[in-house]
Amino acid sequence: MVTDQQVRRLFKLVQTEKNFGMAAIKAGMDEKTARKYRRLGKLPSELETAHTWRTRKDPFEDVWHEIKSMLEINAGLEAKTIFAELQRRNPGQFADGQLRTLQRRIKVWRASEGPAKEVFFTQLHHPGELSQSDFTHMNKLGITIGGRPFDHLIYHFVLTYSNWETGSICYSESFESLSAGVQTALWELGGVPQKHRTDCLTTAVQKTSHPEQFTRRYQDLLDHYGLKGCKTNPDSPHENGDVEQRHYRFKQAVDQALMLRNSRDFAGRSEYEQFVGTLFRQLNAGRTKRFLEEQAVLRRLPKHRIEACKKSTTRVGPSSTIRVNHNVYSVDSRLIGERIGVYLFMEHLEIWYGQKKIDTLPRLRGESKHRINYRHIIDSLVRKPGAFENYRYREDLFPTSRFRIAYDNLKHRHSRSIAAKQYLNILHLAARQSETAVDDVLRMMIDKNMSICDEQVEALVRCSQPVADATRVRIPSVDLTCYDRLLEEVTS
Predict the structure, then answer these.
(1) Which helix (H) or strand (E) holds 95?
(2) For residue 373, what is the DSSP state?
(3) φ and ψ of 358, to 5 deg
(4) Could you say which DSSP state residue 154 is in?
(5) Rounded to whole angstroms, what are the CA distances from 117 to 74, 111, 114, 410, 442?
(6) 308, 288, 371: which is closest to 181 by C-alpha?
(7) Which conformational region is residue 28 in: left (phi greater than 0), alpha (psi within -120 to 50 degrees), or beta?
(8) Which run of H or of E encompasses 413?
(9) What angle do CA 99, 104, 110 make, to 5 degrees?
(10) Which of 280, 305, 295, 304 is nearest to 193 (CA)?
(11) What span, in angstroms and rounded, lies between the C-alpha atoms of 409 and 443?
């Protein structure tokens, strides 16, 4: 097939070559073909005619009015759905192979007669003007810590002009996570942009029926740093497009870095945090020039950060528990009936009484959960052992699996009342002495099939003899060469 380039070369050679046949050969075409193009004086592309006729009858011509009415009522209908409906209405008329024909015709209809599509308008970004942030789930990357799945999110912060980004690990889209993430990002950035945009986070944005745009706590955070808050419209993630795109790129970079690392397991959270921080620094390394432009116009940080926590007061109930964010926590029984202060941080709670911090509790994730510390209530349980059997949070009173085995052992050999009393004495011993020491003694007694009783456990805990270490199970490596020998015997 002759190309435009060959014909252009022919036209030039005709002016310099004395022999027309030689010009045709140098242009890479037959002399007869060359004479045709010289006579016409046009390129091959200029001689092509548009293919405007059909090579076969349109199989959907008779039902197109039905198809068109369906599309006009609901333009979102897919061709596959319409095709299945046509096959149902007209059995045997349409073969499966004709689906592609319908798809092409509907595509033409959408482009020529269908509803107008949404237009995305490219925006100009200015240095230091806008930052965006959002939470992104990391669970699909299969990250583990100490061999256990590490379910978490990354609070992701991006400057829209330079695409400088940073992030922090969190466990929920709570206000505490948002506040800690924003402040950590700003202090790492070393300055404050003019605006900050999020999507419609319930922890930051009020419901549409509320006259104020943002929640009081989030507005206080913005005011402290002099930020102007912005939000996207509902169901419009493209309005936060920079951070949404960085979500995808960042998780892709994490996945690749984990492949190079040859392991998705980390020894501890600090090691994983270091890994994430290093990755952010690598991603930002190529954005130095535009980032310096942003830094030059950022406003100063305030003198100090504000506490990323929710403060509240509550009264300790008769069961020595408090309810915080729809979860139940136990506190020291001495506080029953007293009003205490609760500071709810991203990962822990602080209990305050009499202007002093008296306890720190790990924060529960989610709702309708409970965390009962047996040390808070064991004194009352020892005096009321009958309450143990049907205690609502009884499962929290087994610190390790060996404590549970010990209770089942006692229940097997004694009545429920005696078993509960003896187990509570063992638990009381763990609270007064050492949970680890009691656990080691129970492990030794279980391994030796000894009968467990509270007095013997206490005697072994108080004696000075060390308890033997836990048995280490060693599995020898499998020698696969034996299979090769079997194959050699078969072939010989």
Answers:
(1) none
(2) -
(3) -110, -15
(4) E
(5) 14, 9, 9, 72, 70
(6) 308
(7) left
(8) helix 401-413
(9) 120
(10) 295
(11) 13
Q: Are strands 356-362 and 228-231 parallel, antiparallel or unpaired?
A: unpaired
CA gap 39, 62 in Å, rounded = 47
249 CB-near residues (< 8 Å, 6+ apart): 283
Q: Are 423 and 453 in contact (CB under 8 A)?
A: no
3-state secondary structure of 388: coil
- Dihedral of CA atoms 63, 64, 65, 71 in degrees, nearest 10, equals 120
What is the rounded CA–CA span in Å between residue 399 and residue 427? 9
Q: How buried is 472 (Cβ within 10 angstroms: 0-12 exposed, 13-18 middle, 19+ buried)?
A: exposed
C-alpha 26/C-alpha 21 separation (Å) is 9
Of 394, 398, 382, 400, the C-alpha closest to 440 is: 400
Helices (H), 215-342: 216-225, 241-261, 269-284, 288-297
Q: Which amino acid is at 479?
A: D
Helix (H) or strand (E) holding 484: helix 481-491
- CA gap 66, 141 in Å, rounded: 47
* 314 DSSP β-pair partners: 340
C-alpha closest to that of 423 among 410, 434, 433, 436: 410
Collect all residues with Cβ–Cβ distance below 8 Å to 176 and sequence separation of at least 6. Answer: 308, 309, 310, 344, 345, 346
Q: Say how far apart CA 171 and CA 178 lie, in whole Å.
A: 11
- Structure-token match 């011993």, residue found: 429
Q: Which residues pair with 6 in a beta bridge?
A: none
Amino acid at 135: F
132 within 8 A of 199, measured Cβ to Cβ: no
- Tokens 């986070």 correspond to 201
Give the number of other CB atoms < 10 A from CB of residue 204: 25
Query: 374 phi and psi, to 5 degrees?
Result: -60, -25
Q: Looking at residue 439, what DSSP letter applies?
A: H
pLDDT tens by residue, the chain, 492 residues: 889 999 999 999 998 988 999 999 999 999 999 999 999 888 988 888 776 667 778 899 889 999 999 998 898 899 999 999 999 999 999 999 999 999 999 999 999 988 888 777 777 889 999 999 999 999 999 999 999 999 999 999 999 999 999 999 999 899 999 999 999 999 999 999 999 999 888 888 887 777 788 999 999 999 999 999 998 887 777 778 889 999 999 999 999 999 999 999 999 999 999 999 999 999 999 999 999 999 999 999 999 998 888 899 999 999 999 999 899 999 999 999 999 999 999 889 999 999 899 999 999 988 899 999 999 999 999 999 999 999 999 999 999 999 999 999 999 999 999 999 999 999 999 999 999 999 999 999 998 888 899 999 999 988 865 555 555 666 777 777 777 777 777 666
